[in-house]
Automatic annotation (TrEMBL):
Locus of motif 'KMSKS' region: 240-244
Gene this protein is translated from: gltX
InterPro entries reported for this sequence: aa-tRNA-synth_I_cd-bd (IPR045462), aa-tRNA-synth_I_codon-bd_sub2 (IPR020751), aa_tRNA-synth_I_cd-bd_sf (IPR008925), Glu-tRNA-ligase_bac/mito (IPR004527), Glu/Gln-tRNA-synth (IPR000924), Glu/Gln-tRNA-synth_Ib_cat-dom (IPR020058), GluQ/Sye (IPR049940), Rossmann-like_a/b/a_fold (IPR014729)
The name this protein goes by in its record: Glutamate--tRNA ligase
Family annotation (Gene3D superfamilies): 1.10.10.350, HUPs
Origin superkingdom: Bacteria
Entry's EC annotation: 6.1.1.17
UniProt: ATP binding residues: K243
Classification via HAMAP family: Glu_tRNA_synth_type1
Enzyme class: ligase
Catalysed reactions, as listed in the record: tRNA(Glu) + L-glutamate + ATP = L-glutamyl-tRNA(Glu) + AMP + diphosphate
Organism in which the protein naturally occurs: Devosia albogilva
Assigned keywords, A-Z: Aminoacyl-tRNA synthetase, ATP-binding, Cytoplasm, Ligase, Nucleotide-binding, Protein biosynthesis
Length: 442
């Protein structure tokens, strides 16, 4: 059996870390087992789904490092759903209902007053052909419900363990709207059967849907996949991520200059027993992450932790990994990268840091340090410079002035870089060069 998984976003907005979590967990599972990864666009919501959002999702996945083996769009697969609909109707598992939403609300309220569960009473099953014809002549159009078996449905969840969903406590789900369009459930099951999905890996908020979906799999004669329901990822306020609420999108993190690996690691490893630390590739994570490592409690996406992780990733990147990105900024040289990388919080920061070498720099010079810096200028060693130049220079200044420690090096740093912080001057001086140092000293 070839492991085949799918990630099925709705292209109704840009994806956020909460969406990226199942996208990545499915990717890890497929890579770990040498399987296939299918991207399925659940774009049956014609009012809200757009091709622009779908293209954005593909762009976000590619940025995170996910390359689907296949892309399908539900909007192009309607014939499959129609065939499944006709089969379920013929088998008596899909039946038309004519109640309006207001009538259903009244039924639910009445059931609650009587102390009964507010589930659909299946009144539509008692309608005669004449009743249905009369209702349709009045302008009513049916929605279609799937007739549940009403039994305990058991399945072994790869994350949550043995599960039981009793469909007798549930309303027969609506699979087709009054306008004839499909809700999520039927197309999803039909696609899973047609595409040979072996494992469905998704958020735990779908656990209760699984009993219904297993009954539909069985009614259509399909093989029931193995399910795995992972914990949810919450935002910094402890709330679920939401497209509608404007939660931070993956595209937003990209625009802010975060590394894709940092966002991928935070989105997928937060709430697991694996450390949230730099990894070189997603495949490295795939080999290490077993589903037993996923917590049963929700996890929180902490942007402060993301900032720290992003910096750690940058500080460890070799020059070869960033050569092209540096060239795009007009910067060259391994020495420059190795000098500046540990000062970066985000890659784009290097544009500003590189000015320490290329200029312009606005020297910061205190009045009380002017004589000292004039002497420092006079004692500046001749070129060529190397990583010993700093020590030779400061030793000469120490002998001439008696200054040492911060009183010695801080005025030099402020004059040469215009900053209190930054890379070691020992390594910086050879890149700055003698002429630039002379220009910056008073």
């Amino acid at each position: 059996m070839t492991v085949t998984v799918r990630w099925a976003p709705s292209p109704t907005g840009r994806i956020h870390p909460g969406n990226a979590r199942p996208a990545l967990l499915n990717w890890y599972f497929a890579r770990r087992h040498g399987g296939r990864y299918i991207l399925r666009m659940d774009d049956t919501d014609q009012a809200r789904s757009t091709r622009e959002f779908a293209d954005g999702i593909e762009e976000d996945l590619a940025w995170l490092g996910i390359e689907p083996d296949q892309l399908v769009r539900q909007s192009e697969r309607t014939a499959l759903y129609d065939a499944a609909r006709d089969r379920l109707i013929a088998d008596g598992r899909l039946y038309p209902c004519y109640e309006t939403e207001e009538e259903l609300d009244r039924k639910r309220a009445r059931a609650r007053l009587l102390g009964k569960p507010p589930i659909y009473d299946r009144a539509a099953l008692n309608l005669s052909d004449a009743d249905r014809a009369r209702l349709e002549s009045e302008g009513r159009r049916p929605h279609w419900r799937f007739k549940l078996d009403g039994r305990p449905v058991q399945f072994d969840d790869l994350i949550k363990g043995p599960q039981t969903v009793n469909t007798s406590s549930m309303s027969d789900p609506v699979l087709i709207r009054e306008d004839g369009t499909y809700l999520y459930t039927l197309p999803s099951v039909v696609d899973d059967i047609d595409l040979g999905i072996t494992h469905v890996i998704r958020g735990e908020d779908h656990t209760s849907n699984t009993g219904t979906q297993i009954e539909i799999f069985e009614a259509l004669g399909g093989t029931v996949p193995t399910f795995a329901h992972h914990n949810l990822l919450l935002d910094g306020n402890g709330e679920p991520f939401s497209k509608r609420a404007g939660s931070q999108s993956i595209a937003g993190f990209r625009d802010l200059g975060y590394e894709p690996m940092a966002v991928a690691i935070m989105s997928s490893l937060t709430g697991t027993s694996l450390p949230v630390e730099p990894y070189e590739t997603l495949d490295e994570i795939a080999l290490k992450l077993d589903f037993s490592a996923i917590s049963h409690s929700s996890a929180r996406f902490d942007t402060a932790e993301l900032d720290s992780l992003n910096a750690r990733i940058l500080h460890s990147l070799p020059y070869e990994a960033v050569r092209d990105r540096l060239s795009a900024l007009g910067l060259e040289g391994e020495a420059l990268w190795l000098l500046l990388r540990e000062n970066l919080a985000r890659f784009g920061d290097i544009t500003e840091w590189s000015k320490l070498v290329t200029g312009p720099v606005t020297p910061v010079i205190a009045d009380e340090d002017r004589d000292f810096l004039s002497l420092a200028k006079a004692l500046l060693p001749p070129e060529p410079w190397d990583d010993t130049t700093w020590s030779h220079w400061t030793e000469a200044l120490k002998s001439s002035t008696g200054r040492k420690g911060r009183a010695l090096f801080m005025p030099l740093r402020l004059a040469i870089t215009g900053r209190h912080d930054g890379p070691e001057l020992k390594s910086l001086l050879p890149l700055v060069g003698r002429k630039a140092c002379l220009d910056r000293l008073p």
